[in-house]
């Protein structure tokens, strides 16, 4: 109760949000498509986004293989708790490795855990695809999850810390939307291999899970390291060179580069002066950090406990309950729904700086609540009364739910987490989000098959539970989610901490003037020489 009281007292006030937005620097606008440095940087950004696609691949992979008779026969038709355990092993593997990631990312850089995770995931995919028994398949899934945490936590951190401030919000939001790319690839791959009618129907998608990690591993050594990490390790020249090379085509004296460099340097200096090292207990020491802690937990829970896990892992069961008996039809419906989610999530991700985070969260969660109400009603009519057409209405609302979920929760889960965290707590904060996500998914994957068995013939009662829960989510989002549009990554701490924020107080106009004076002095010396 003390923690909840603390965050209710510390909920950021609208004045702090407005002030932070007004003080945000107005950087010179750049077009990445016409800028060689940014074009190269955003090629690397695509490589970093493969980590999200890897996670999406697994989410849809396990849903897809359940449609294959060859997979069902090979593993003797797993059901209930056994099926739930198979699904949950990926998350169990992730839960084991998650606590290791912040230590590696903060001490050895953001790239090291990405490379390590990719190697482990490739090994897991090979073991899964070449398995000869249930034990090997289970081991492959656990190994995939174990490796995923390293790449999944470090990749978005590195992405956010490399991006030009003009593009950071959109790119970090797009990052998690690419979960749907991985899901879409395996959905259509499974749709195609279904026609093989043998074990390769599911072994090909299982082996294909290694491809995103192989691509990321191939290019990660050319991706630049985080300037923020380098500055934290007193490697200032390297950090400045990276900012200059990619944000201003090698011009280290560009005003934007100088502002970024000075702000990052001074902010990290203040954070380190306040406390030489960070710990997880820091989340309980100040009102602002208590607020961050609760919001991070809510992001992890809401992103997985909104009914979306049913769609990603058990659409085969959902469509069977709706009367769709053809495996090809079920695979096609899953692929189509995933494609819609990808389009919607990326479209909204590109508009986060226009509409802001809070309105998108509210529209998404409100739409999910409305959809679940009608989903529950149509399921009840079909299951209890066999009302004509109600099964097709249920399919429509399954798709509509995915549409609204993709509005916010596909993309903003990671980008919003990054935005509310200061540098010294960023790795640990993302670990908390991922820990909650994986714990929620583990419970989902183990409990949902048992819930379907328990409510067999009356699954509308299960959907009613989700409906009530989403109402609570909407209430929490309305009360506690603050707007983060506008300020730089460093200045966003002002939104939550207000006057207590440990951030450099810089003025872009002053930096520009200092750079101009420096150039004039150099020209004068050159003429004299």
TrEMBL record:
Keywords: Membrane, Transmembrane, Transmembrane helix, Transport. Its main location: membrane. The keyword Transit peptide does not apply. GO terms for molecular function: carbohydrate:proton symporter activity. It is found in: Membrane. One of its GO terms (cellular component) is membrane. PROSITE patterns: MFS (PS50850), SUGAR_TRANSPORT_1 (PS00216). The keyword Transport applies. It is a multi-pass membrane protein. Pfam families: Sugar_tr. The chain crosses the membrane at residues 41-63, 83-105, 112-130, 142-160, 172-191, 203-223, 361-382, 394-418, 425-443, 463-482. Residues 44-485 form the Major facilitator superfamily (MFS) profile domain. NCBIfam families: SP. Belongs to the major facilitator superfamily. Sugar transporter (TC 2.A.1.1) family. PANTHER family: HEXOSE TRANSPORTER, PLASTIDIC GLUCOSE TRANSPORTER 4. This is Lactose permease.
